[in-house]
Please model this.
Amino acid sequence: MSITVLKPGLQSTIQDLGRYNYSHFGISASGAADPLSLQIGNMLIGNKKYASAIEMTIIGGEFQFNVECYIAISGSEFDAALDNNVITNHKAIIVSKGQTLSVGQTKTGARVYLCVQGGINVDSYLSSKSTHILSGIGGHFGRPIIKGDVLTFGKNENSGIPKLINNILDMNTSILRINNGLQSNHFNNNTWNDFTSNSFLVSNLSNRMGIRLDGNKINSTIDNEIITEGVPLGAIQVPKSGDPIISFVEHQTTGGYPKIANVIMADLYKVGQLKPGDKIKFDLVTIEEAEELRFEQLAFINNLEKND
Amino acid sequence: MISVDPFSRLSKIQGYINTIIEDFDNMEIINEEPEVIIPVVYGGKYGPDLDKVAKHCGLSIEEVIKKHSNEDYLVYFIGFSIGFPYLGGMSSSLATPRLETPRTSVPKGSIAIAGSQTGIYPLSSPGGWNLIGQTPSHIFNVDNTKKSMLKMGDLIRFKSINAEEFEDRLL
Model:
């Protein structure tokens, strides 16, 4: 029960839903950049929704299957073929022993997940299989996969029966909804106006640690630096340069830049689909609205799980 | 910082959070843990920036070592990267700006200074702090984080050792 990596792609890692509750050791949660797509991919082939899968970024990899099994590809649309037959996202597909899956370039967002029956089996580290590249922990030897790696599958903890999912996940990443950040009052009304009415471009220096934004400088009116404090996932930090950074799944657990805003939890999966050159805008909502949107999202995922 | 995924309404847990915050005000900090002694070999290949720090601070190398090892340090917290202790209490006379170009690899256990702070690299990693020494102690236990040497609130002190002791303790 395994696959052999023939080509790793640009940056492919093993991810599940993340490693929580270890911030006090300086370890951020990591986990799938788009956890909704990971869960949907797993549900399509009857896996537990948190099973670990291969997360690919911008350019996918090539994998040879050493066993017959169900797979599903979920997330953004990438060119993908099984041997020479084009395959599509969000469908359970049966793969025969010896076949090769090739995932090429993205046609839409940054990330796609290859889910296999039983999940990818790597040792858990601090109760998660997620790779944390910066810390060099979790996943397959704490690093992105490379050519020649052989990845085995886990035991099927769930039905293993494929199911149809009418996927209506909104993949439009052009607007990210935000709440006020801890230092939102370090920025005056004019700055806030600029921040929410102008567009930003996703810089090519972006990665799983942070999404760097260009094209619209934001300047703090009080201090450029604050006393180091905790940094939450999705915090929008504004360093001296004025180019904001969205702290992402492998973020540093503490930092000293003022945080103007925080991407709401319900929109964090969209951050995982941002790629260099994308244009985004921020839309300020209340905590109550953010909470409501997150509840709707959890209900959406739970309903997908229930409906057979 | 408290992270919450609102499986329950934020308004419901707000009261609980407020109680925790109120408790902070009434809290008496009692530290019964013994001071953690961290052996350090200062300078040479173990601390390639010690000369630079001494020059910058207008002190002799011996004075830097004495000032650095003659303080109690409080572990404020472990962050920003895996296992890295933020230490409070360094003598301001040792403050030295960080390197202009960070090193691509700093050896595990390096004792370093950046600005008015001192820290310990728990694992080999890139870094821009001035390296003044190295400890043979394993500060952070990757395999069992609970067995790590330092945690928030610990008091520590550096003890100067020689290269021979360092190599002995590494075994």
About this structure: Chain A touches chain B through 29 residues (CB under 8 Å). The longest helix of chain A spans residues 287-306. The longest strand of chain A covers residues 69-75.
